[in-house]
Amino acid sequence: MTDETFSSRTARLIGDDGVARLASATVVILGLGGVGGYVLEGLARAGVGGFILADCDAFSESNLNRQILATRETIGRKKTDVALERVKAINPQANVELFDAFLDAGNIPELLSRDGISFVVDAVDNVTAKIAAVSEAKRRGIPVLTCMGTGNHLDASRFVIGDLEKSSVCPLARVMRNELRRRGVSGVTALWSTEIPQKGSAPDGKRLPPASISCVPSVAGLLIAGYVIRALSGVCTPIDHRKDNPL
């Protein structure tokens, strides 16, 4: 596969300059699960040339219903290793750095201190890590998009990308809004769902992990990838939070 074959159809939409901008960009993806895996897929196929991929987990059978990198063959393998292979299988010229560690407020600043980061996508579940990622990216002036909850949802058409301050319904968005306000962090781009989360419980009344289905986190991930592609290629500018004008 030649470079021209890889990028020609993309260039018809975003131009040769847009393709070149994507090829020279480096995107950090925090979390390679149901959302993050599809973010990676969309960006790799668009020709993004550099990735820093962070996750500490290995694939399990419970990931098979929604995670694009999870197959019977990848169960038990590190998500970062599988993600590296996936990117290289799509675009062998891509530069990929792996960060195989549990993300927290202690190591995220060091991770985001690398030169040349073009965009940060937060697709982790841990609230402490999400707050640290958004806060550090904003402090460094790096564009960032944080993903809110996709579990317990069935209607993928209810996703919104906009200013986190405008979010509603999503319980995780409420927590993030409050915590980031306390830290003086504003103008944060987020994806959230306006669908009221489904409720479910085990027969014995115990609390279960969030329910999930194939068609929801996948859509969220590709919507995020689309936002990043448009922003980095220069086709559209990022959201103007003052006008609440999402891409």
Explain the overall architecture.
The protein has a domain at 3-145 and 214-233: Rossmann fold (3-Layer(aba) Sandwich). It contains seven helices and seven strands; from the N terminus they run αβαβαβαβαββαβα. It has helices spanning 3-23, 36-46, 79-90, 108-111, 127-140, 171-182, 217-233, and strands at 26-30, 50-54, 95-99, 119-122, 144-147, 159-163, 189-193. Mean pLDDT is 93; it is low at 240-247.
Please outline what is shown here.
By secondary structure, this protein is α/β, with parallel strands linked by helices.
Unreliable sequence segments: 240-247
Second-tier CATH architecture of one domain: 3-Layer(aba) Sandwich
Distance between the termini: 32 Å
Number of helices: 7
The pLDDT mean sits at 93
CATH class of one domain: Alpha Beta
Class derived from helix and strand content: alpha/beta
Strand content: 5-15%
- Name the shape in a single word: globular
Helix percentage range: 25-40%
Largest sheet: 7 strands, mixed
CATH topology name of one domain, in short, is: Rossmann fold
Radius of gyration: 17 Å
Total number of β-strand segments?
7
Task: State the fourth-level CATH superfamily of one domain.
Answer: NAD(P)-binding Rossmann-like Domain
How do the strands line up in the largest sheet?
A: 3-2-1-4-5-7-6
The ordered H/E elements are HEHEHEHEHEEHEH
